[in-house]
Amino acid sequence: MANLILILGDQLSHQLSALEQADKDNDLVVMAEVYDEASYTNHHKKKLTFIFSAMRHFAQELEQDGWRVHYQGYHPDNPEQSLEGVVARLAGEHQPEKLITTECGEWRLHSQISQWHERLGIPVEIRPDTRFVCRKEEFAQWATGRKQLRMEFFYREMRKKTGLLMTPDGKPEGDQWNFDASNRKKWTGKPPAPAPFREEPDAITRDVLQLVNDYFTDHFGTTEDFHFAVTREQAEQALEHFIDFALPCFGDYQDAMSDKEDWLFHSILSPYLNTGLLDPVTTCEAAVQAWYSGRAPLNAVEGFVRQIIGWREFVRGIYWLHMPDYARENRLGNTRALPWFYWTGDTKMRCVHKAVDATTRNAHAHHIQRLMVTGNFALLAGIKPEEICDWYLAVYIDAFDWVELPNTLGMVMHADGGYLGSKPYAASGKYIHRMSDHCQNCHYRVQDATGERACPFNALYWHFIDRHRDNFANNPRMTMMYRNWDKQPDERRQAILSRGEWLLKNIEQL
Ligand code: FAD
Ligand code: DLZ
């Protein structure tokens, strides 16, 4: 027997580096559903269903393609409940020359796999993950000598590297790199938001749904109405669906939130990109093609491309540059526990309730809900970074440490001291009111900062500004906020701060 080839649950690409130059007749591909991976966080039931079902479909495709595959389905009585256990047993049984794998997406498992050669007694070849535009070393080189990293400059490099939205003479299409300024419209119900792509569960997915409901009962969320794609072909259909129905308005309403619509004009492609069912560059090329053929405007297509070859690659670069220390950062010194309503949605704050409710049902909430509602609240309330990070890692179908951690710890919590983002995304209720219709259905009054019914985001915002004066007063992007705060009468400031104190003490009752 030649080699064992280990493929992880988020490595479901036929072009995976671990499969390159393999000997289909002799090598053995190993895939395993194991308790250790299914339980390192309280994964949403739909996330478990998606990953197990997509893994099973991928293994089936490999077999149909002539590969020899050892697939372990999940069962609580399986003797091996870790990837290492499964590989060790197969190594004992088959005496392979070596184990080949593609570098994994998360420090926790990466540090384990890096030790396996000693523990298994066979060589372990870890190949680079070629499914990203920017290699880890390339990012490290770009970051060298920069005190702060700015996505915008990195993104321009990625545009040049891929040629996406570039003219033949090397200029950005539309003579502008970034069209974000046109992407901040409030959505008032028109044009109607398209229904998301749906794939009805087949027999494999139905088996997995049963398994998750039998053995992962205490995990977050529900399996009800599972409709995600679970194969590459279906994911490609989801991409087409997005381009036909949502991309034209993606830019305009990218920052909008709605009381009535969960998905708005977002692509819902992150689960497929993160597990390898879709390739990021091909995905962007399809969107760019829609612009060239007049089916979508430039502000939408540029915004979409920026999220994928800009933000997505940027956060991955930061993750690998600074792990494992990055995960321990807490520069704002937060100590508060995560409120229980993050798990139940049981809060009178309408925007938070709606975001958690969508998260519970769908294992998805769109970016502005994650950033400006649940994220913003955690920032203002001074929640411990590790608790809020673990929440985001658990509850979203697309959550993997390499992408979740920098977004939460860096972008949302500013716990890295502003390395990832130049200013904290802190906002009062006014922002949520401007970008959504939540406030009109809320128990609290968004126009008030004090009083029993005042929107908690308001007093918490000023409390945050006041208590972090040392951190932010000298930040040029925050000067205006401090000026506004300082020119309030003393009495008013005291009233707001007392309200803020009260809210923090009674956080579970909000
Ligand atoms: P769209 O809005 O349609 O965007 C298109 C694609 O761009 C996404 O599919 C995604 O691949 C990429 N993208 C957009 N924004 C980001 C970003 N900030 N970082 C990385 N990629 C981005 N995204 C994840 O994939 N996994 C996570 O675990 C994750 N955790 C997040 C945690 C917080 C606190 C925040 C603020 C954002 C997080 N994001 C995460 C980024 C973003 O919210 C999701 O990618 C997006 O909501 C997924 O839905 P979509 O596919 O409809 O995205
Ligand atoms: C997320 C996940 C889950 C829930 N289960 C498995 C599993 O049973 N087997 C597996 O190989 N991978 C799983 N994964 C994905 C891994 O946790 C993922 O590869 C790492 O988090 C690295 O990104």
From TrEMBL:
Gene3D superfamilies: 1.25.40.80, Deoxyribodipyrimidine photolyase-related (1.10.10.1710), DNA Cyclobutane Dipyrimidine Photolyase, subunit A, domain 3 (1.10.579.10), HUPs (3.40.50.620). Pfam families: DPRP. It comes from the Bacteria. InterPro entries: Crypto/Photolyase_FAD-like_sf, PhrB-like, Rossmann-like_a/b/a_fold, UV-DNA_repair_photolyase. Residues 178-199 are annotated as: Disordered. The keyword Lyase applies. GO terms for molecular function: lyase activity. Keywords: Lyase. This is Cryptochrome/photolyase family protein. It comes from Marinobacter halophilus.
